[in-house]
Structure formats: structure tokens, C-alpha cells
Design goal:
Largest sheet: 2 strands, antiparallel
Helix content: 55-70%
CATH class: Mainly Alpha
Length: 157
């Protein structure tokens, strides 16, 4: 299932971008979507803003695999569901992804993708920061669902 992780991490990194420290974002300083708190946890000590800026792509990928992919059982999820669940874990937390995976566990994969996407959109809309980030979140959610559907159809190499 390594190929699935590679496809999923490529999607996440496409959306997470480089270093930002946007005041309205509760995540604070991030690089490639890795927050300062998460990077500190991985390093086993507090890290500086400069260290967050210097985070490498390989380090980010290792952190994503360790703290997001593995805890949601990404390797054992159906193709497509793995992408949406991973993106939810990255964007909204592993515990929320696991809860929603559990809630949709008896749904066929193509419908499960839709159910997870709907839960995510409803959650995003409930946030105070929706007015700031909603347009981008909507694009990300639609792109994620579209790619998940293509993955399920086998039309993604």
C-alpha cells in the first residue's frame, strides 16, 4: 500500500504549502502543514520558528506517516477512503478522522467517501474561521473527493 501513501501525501503537500504563521489560524506557525507543536513533539523538545521554517520535505513526510497515516490505519483503508481520512486527520485531527471512520464503517467505499466529505464540510462550516478559510477549504474538499473517486475507479496511476 506504499503507493497509496505516496499519492495521499502528494495531495496533502500540494495543499499545505510552505511556511506560514497566519494569526487567524489556530495552528500557528506551520511548514508544509506541520505545526510548531507537532514538530516539537516529533523532535522531543520545543522548536523555534526558525526550525519550523527549516523543516525538510522528508521530515514532513516522516511526521505525516508517523502521526497521521499510521494512527488512522491508512494502509488498511480502502483506496480513496484512505485519502479522505488522511486529509481529515491532517486538517482536523486524528481523533476526528477515527471517529468519522468508525461512524461510516458499514458504508460502501464510494458512498463512504461522500459521507466523510459531507461530515468534513459540515464541520468546516461550523468554525468561526470559515469566513476566512472557507473558500480554500471548499476547493480542497472538492479536490480531495474528486481524487478519491478517481483512485477508486483505478484511473490514477
Amino acid at each position: 500500500m506504499r503507493a497509496n501513501f505516496d499519492r495521499c501525501i502528494a495531495f496533502v503537500l500540494q495543499w499545505e504549502g510552505g511556511y506560514v504563521n497566519d494569526p487567524p489560524d489556530p495552528g500557528g506557525a506551520t511548514n508544509m502543514g506541520i505545526t510548531r507543536a507537532t514538530y516539537s513533539r516529533w523532535r522531543g523538545r520545543p522548536v523555534s520558528f526558525a526550525e519550523v521554517k527549516a523543516l525538510t520535505r522528508d521530515q514532513a513526510i516522516t511526521i505525516y506517516r508517523t502521526y497521521y497515516w499510521a494512527p488512522i490505519g491508512g494502509d488498511s483503508l480502502p483506496v480513496g477512503v484512505d485519502l479522505i481520512a488522511f486529509d481529515i486527520a491532517v486538517n482536523m485531527g486524528v481523533s476526528r478522522a477515527l471517529t468519522w471512520l468508525h461512524q461510516t464503517g458499514n458504508v460502501p467505499p464510494s458512498q463512504r467517501d461522500e459521507a466523510l466529505a459531507a461530515k468534513r464540510m459540515a464541520f468546516w462550516r461550523s468554525l468561526k474561521t470559515w469566513v476566512v478559510y472557507g473558500k480554500g477549504w471548499s476547493r480542497r474538499g472538492a479536490a480531495c473527493l474528486a481524487l478519491a473517486n478517481k483512485m477508486q475507479a483505478g484511473s490514477v496511476p
